[in-house]
Amino acid sequence: MALIVQKYGGTSVANVERIRAVAERVAKFKMLGHQVVVVLSAMSGETNRLIGLAKQIQAEPDPRELDMMVSTGEQVTIALLAMALKDLGLKAKSYTGAQVRILTDDAFTKARILSIDEAKMRRDLDSGHVVVVAGFQGVDEGGNITTLGRGGSDTTGVALAAALKADECQIYTDVDGVYTTDPRIVPEARRLKTVTFEEMLEMASLGSKVLQIRSVEFAGKYKVKLRVLSSFQDEGDGTLITFEENDNMEQAIISGIAFSRDEAKITVVGVPDHPGIAYQILGPVADANVDVDMIVQNVGHANTTDFTFTVHRNDFAKAMSLVKATAATVGAREVTGDDKIAKVSIVGVGMRSHVGIAKKMFETLSKENINLQMISTSEIKISVVVEDKYLELAVRALHQAFELDKATA
Amino acid sequence: MALIVQKYGGTSVANVERIRAVAERVAKFKMLGHQVVVVLSAMSGETNRLIGLAKQIQAEPDPRELDMMVSTGEQVTIALLAMALKDLGLKAKSYTGAQVRILTDDAFTKARILSIDEAKMRRDLDSGHVVVVAGFQGVDEGGNITTLGRGGSDTTGVALAAALKADECQIYTDVDGVYTTDPRIVPEARRLKTVTFEEMLEMASLGSKVLQIRSVEFAGKYKVKLRVLSSFQDEGDGTLITFEENDNMEQAIISGIAFSRDEAKITVVGVPDHPGIAYQILGPVADANVDVDMIVQNVGHANTTDFTFTVHRNDFAKAMSLVKATAATVGAREVTGDDKIAKVSIVGVGMRSHVGIAKKMFETLSKENINLQMISTSEIKISVVVEDKYLELAVRALHQAFELDKATA
Transmembrane region positions (chains A, B) (predicted)? Predict the structure, then answer.
């Protein structure tokens, strides 16, 4: 007998039929003798509908009141699932975040979980109930309803698994696991049986939007065994996210290829090469709440240097005008920009101990005549920026070069 | 400065525009220096939508889970109103029933309020906030969400007014007060400036569905000054519900004419006239959860009597078959039924001390050649059952005979 936390996202509870399907899956686990805690999101589209309603009232909805309102989305789905479970003859009880005291700070719309009171859930589990908990929400010290921000239901699932010391936290989604890359681009892309926590972090932040990144960090911190599965398939073990490299002795050097085409780059040419210049350029950009991704500065010559960074394509115009203003004051020669770029990254814990990975990546792209505009590396990934028309070509070439279509142990 | 509790029903918060209109009305009271607590229903139609969803999952939805779900309707409107108030520059805070600890018993879907913790609301009011509370809902000792049953938001309003010792509880609805009768039938019908608590009870139970009857009882018990007003008109003082007859020295003898066309009557003919027969006939009907309204049994002759009662028209077929089964076992001659009837009642505390009211009523109806099928009286009302095609005629004739179109002091 195991204690399993299962989290289902909005598409898995989008309508009455899907809620029934979730109930049937939960019932199977119960029949096998497991204890099951279910965490649910709102029906897909519901959170956006509620936010839209709020914005009709207040252009910038009050965060406390917004949380009060959007938290109702999960409250509806947990009640419906509890009913569906009872309809199958199971014992079930639904709880809001406040009812199982998922205590958070008071940062409305982006609260962080501080603690969970697992006693009530434990009691229900021990008396044979399926416990159904609203994801995405909690309560602050003052009793106000808070929400964890988009994708927060994943975090709720992991946090409950940690609090209950569950044997496994299963994240059900509309894909059946983590792939070596996007199968829409590379049909040979293969589902990974396991992926390390750190790889997952790199993959998630690079655009493999299977899991919310915060939940992965959370799982890492509390050593929660996390598994990504499809809620639309009955078979398959999904992808297990592991926290120790030793779990994966036979791990391939490279686990996957992530990419993003939502990027734009901005280069400040001929910047006087003295301390503080990066701060002067990026300060106003950060102040305007524009996230900066890659930052590259090369060695200078003749007392000037070139400084390049990437931002989300949507922020390109805003960032350009900010940087142009700064460039004038710091005496840079000019500012150039390009929003027709894409980022391609190879990710794998294996590359730590293997030389030649970067060489093989650059060689592969060179053979395809793809020019590298920027290069950035970390312990377990190498990212390059290329002209966006080469994105698919680059991903396919790398997938083949690193033999990601071939199964490993 | 007064402390006012205002309750707005579903049609008053049916959409964004109406919620804004409510906010503007609340703002006016705030500007006058009053403290305001607002109680809201769900948007009209929302509760039914949620119940419909539940019934797709479970034919008889689990009551605890149903309450968990339908309570979200008010949670959305309170958040939206708080936003609208803030948009007008006011300080406002919304609370669910659980958050202001509207403690109820655990009779899900029809819970009764036990107590309210007014400390939090008092603190907010004293710091200049408008307090916006979800109607219709509470929380039981175990922390489970409960609802008070249909129309329960009126009860929440009155209960909050009682707990806070408010100066007045204003119930905003889609009519601007209590009328002498339905203006759709009698265009000369007049809004009553005041109506006594007992008259209101009779009017409410007789079909003047302005206020939920439980809330009126509640107001009577705690001596809450209750006023019915229109949320769609800016002017008008509505109708004040009073609790002491002395408040109405100049009160007309008759306050209003109530009626219902949703009735059906069942007569058991030739029942052996011995003790316990009424119980034997009505027992199975009550067990089947069919509400019985009027009950009339006349003096018997030849050791038998006729026994007649009325039920809601929707329950007619069910009640008939139950009574027919009973009639056979108790040895009654036959059972007859009629669902083409209507009930007309005159209501007024004044009739207690005035003779001749019944005579005038019967005389008026007689002049119109309307046959009376049943008669039933209480301290402050006289009800008659007539063929339903005479309903409008009877109401108009009585309205004129008792000069209800003429204003009193």
Answer: none
Joined together, the tokens standing for residue B204 give 């409410």
Alpha carbon separation from B268 to B251, B335, B342 (Å, rounded)? 41, 5, 19
What kind of fold does domain A3-174 have according to CATH? Carbamate kinase (3.40.1160)
Where do you find CATH 3.30.2130.10 in chain B? 257-401
Number of H helices, E strands in chain A: 12, 18
Residues of chain A with CATH 3.40.1160.10: 3-174
Which chain A residue has its CA at the smallest distance from B73's CA? A72
Of B17, B56, B46, nearest in space to B136 by CA: B46
CA distance readout (Å), B301 to B274, B293, B305, B306: 12, 25, 6, 9
Contacts of range A47-52, beta carbons closer than 8 Å, 24 or more positions apart: A47/A10, A47/A73, A50/B76
Does domain B257-401 match CATH 3.40.50.1970? no
Cβ distance of A69 and B75 shorter than 8 Å:
yes
Residue A389 and residue A201: Cα distance in Å, rounded? 26
Tokens 């939960």, located at residue: A26
Cβ contacts (< 8 Å) between B83 and chain A: which residues? 54, 57-58, 61-62, 65-66
Q: Which parts of chain B have pLDDT scores under 70?
A: 150, 204-209, 244-252, 300, 353, 407-409
**Over the stretch A206-260, which tens digit does the pLDDT of each residue have?**
555 677 777 888 888 888 999 999 888 877 889 998 876 555 545 568 889 999 8
* Alpha-carbon distance values, B296 to B134, B201, B334 (Å): 42, 21, 17
Could you identify the residue written with the tokens 């010559």? A301
pLDDT in tens, B81-126: 999 999 999 999 999 999 999 999 999 999 999 999 999 999 999 9
Most B-contacting residue of A20, A50, A65 (CB-CB within 10 A), to test interface? A65
pTM comes to: 0.80
Q: Sign of the CA dihedral B352, B356, B362, B364?
A: negative
Q: Is A228:A177 a contact under the CB 8 Å cutoff?
A: yes
Token pair recorded at residue A334: 């000019």
Helix and strand counts by DSSP (H, E) for chain B? 12, 18
d(CA A219, CA A204): 14
Report yes or no: A104 and A112 within 8 Å, Cβ to Cβ: yes
Closest CA–CA distance from residue B59 to any residue of chain A (Å): 9
Q: What are phi and psi of A180, to 5 degrees?
A: -65, -30
Place of tokens 């990546």: A361
Contact B241, B227 (CB under 8 A): yes
DSSP string spanning A30-82? HHTT-EEEEEE-PPTTHHHHHHHHHHHH-SS--HHHHHHHHTHHHHHHHHHHH
User: Does A89 contact chain B (CB < 8 Å)?
Assistant: no
Flag whether residue A96 sits within 8 Å of chain B, measured between CB atoms.
yes
